[in-house]
Amino acid sequence: MEKELQIRPVSDSDAEFLYQLMNCPSLLERLNEVPTTRQDWTDAISEWLKDEDEEDYIVLAGDTPMGWLGVNGLRGGNGIAYLKMAAFLPEYQGRGYGTCSIRVVLDNLKRKGIEQVFLYTDSDNAPAQACYRKCGFKVVESLTETLSNGKDVDRVKMVSCLK
What we know:
Largest sheet: 7 strands, mixed
Protein name: GNAT family N-acetyltransferase
Strand order of the largest sheet: 1-2-3-4-5-7-6
Oligomer: single chain
Strand content: 25-35%
Organism: Aristaeella hokkaidonensis
CATH superfamily: Gcn5-related N-acetyltransferase (GNAT)
Number of helices: 5
Shape: globular
Number of domains: 1
Helix content: 25-40%
Structural class: alpha+beta
CATH architecture: 3-Layer(aba) Sandwich
């Protein structure tokens, strides 16, 4: 990694970056998402900042935003959280930034008493699964889900035990 990795909580000023990231054509396709507006992201951030059950982070290379990590389920009282999103600009994928930043977030969750984190990813997304395996996740279930773009997609549930 050429540039120093930084992770900080999402803020109101991140709506433009999230709009750009989540409307990147390759990410829309890979994540089976639909295009969004800047206002969608302004509204989402406003909700996240009020939600004690959720934490969202911007991952930076130096001062340049490159990714977003989102976790929720933090207040469920059962020691289980959900990694709802790990998305990086294409030019930063496959370079270790995802693995490193997810490990940092998992360490923070462990310190907060979270014992288990789960996520869902597409069964054919080998790069994402490899990243998650490096972070201690294991496949525990296969399923088919209808995603926001209307496609039925084969997915896997992965779990990491933080104890």
